[in-house]
Amino acid sequence: MLACNLWLYKVFPFLRWWPMVNRDTSKFDLTAGLTGALIVLPQGVAFATIAGLPPEFGLYAAMVPAIIGALFGSSWHLVSGPTTAISIAVFASVAPLAEPGSAQYISLVLTLTFLTGLFQLIMGLARMGALVNFISHTVVIGFTAGAAVLIAASQIKSFLGLNMARGLPFHEILHQVVLQFDRINPYVTAVGAITLITGIIMRNLLPKMYMIIAMVVGSIAALIINHYAGGEAVTHIKTVGALAAHLPPFTLPDFSLRAISQVIFPALIVTMLALTEAVSISRAIAVKSEQRIDGNQEFVGQGLSNLFGSFFSSYPSSGSFNRSGVNYAAGAKTPLAAVYSSLFLVVILMVVASLAAYLPTAAMAGILFLVAYGLIDFHHIHSIFHTSKQETAVLLVTIIGTLIDLEKGIFFGIMLSLMLYLYRTSRPSIVTVVPDPDPASHYYVPVGDHPECPQLKMLRLHGSIFFGAVNHVQQTLQQIDEFNPQQKSVLLAAGGMNFVDVAGAEMLVQEAKRRSKMGGGLYFYRMQPGVHALLEKGHYLDAIGKDAIFPPKSRPIDTIYPKLDSDICRTCTARIFKQCNVALPNGETRS
User: Fold this and answer.
1) CA distances from 170 to 83, 153, 406, 427 (A)
2) pLDDT digits (tens, 9 = 90+) for 468-483
3) Is the pTM of this model over 0.70?
């Protein structure tokens, strides 16, 4: 019975929280759902504009995907829907293939959505949720900042009333602004500036409603300017146009080999980006809600949401930073809040769809400037610049790479961060230590100004000895001979040696044999059980010598000291071991 229930919970994860639903939770969920619907209305229109799609597609992406994601994901507060990063990734990927907004463009976007969902679902079922851990926080910050700059750049033409082709690269947009500076439309710019200023003011006063208020003020400003300036024919203030007031229409992605081959690589980009957003947001909220998040189940939920969404006019969706945060802050108790939000959005769309005909594109550009600015994490960027040169390099490479080619920018950052990580792990910390001079202490301390034993080198190793670190560790051990040929024996304090692979084990065997031929030995103190088990299973301990392994709380010096050269000890003044003051290694009493 228990096994059956566990299977049902995995297939239908909403069965876990469904018993929690009651009148009290529904009251909170309805309130949170209405708040989320009001927030996504302007956001959805703005995000669809970024993605090169008709405005209503941003709202479609917040309907079916949000419901499916809520029912089949693991987070109780994550709300799926359109996001800025995904929107600009979609535009950058598909715009070179078809005219934005055209039927062919929409068809390719739906294929992209389907493939994204398929990849996400496969990764979830294959238990690959840990993959997003390899995308560092710095890469996400850099990519988001780069995407924010691209969002702002893409709206310059609408804000200033200039004529530019869609999909121009970042540097060409700046070039066109310089060339057309004398053609800036003051009426259009005034509408955009009024919207932008209103949004800045209202974001501090009414953070949940500032977008709607700014859009309303911008629309009123456009009506006033048109009235006094002689109409739209004079001002050239364009509007978004009325939205389609109906449920998301059933659609079929283009499953032709040509379409799939065109968007399969972008789908991989969007997949990793969407999963990174979704898992990061759900984990961040779970810290506050104290809920356990299953990354693999979240992959499945996001995959199903995009698969279903592709048949209901949705472009790729992911977890929304704003909506998920507001959902939690508004008191949502169960994932039904996201379901209610989608249903409320349908009702609101029916009511306000015609009003979009009065929304100027310049006002939308002003709103997107605010969205772009809010995406840039200035606090963490400042912290990265002042704490780590390596992380700064990753940040800059990601930002610049994103500005040059958004699809590849995030991969540039991931590759560099992984290379730097491998470089760091390939050079595990190896510190020379000596027994603590305090007679009451049983610990080893960094050598500092303390004298060393002329025959026994003592090292503390932190890190793993894997194929990438073998050369560094081997060189360090061999350099001991160059600095002091008398130090034929080495004792490794191996409590921090977490992992050893086959290459590392073979190197340790080689070093142990080499030191044995020299008349010394290689010894280990406090070796981790996992490392010991690997060496024993591979029969490497037979070559190293089981008597060279000293467990915790043992006294390795008691065993090693008698093997040292008595003639060298006779004239040694270091005497860092307690045994040095009692007798020579051969047992002779010290004078």
Assistant:
1) 20, 7, 10, 39
2) 999 999 999 999 988 8
3) yes
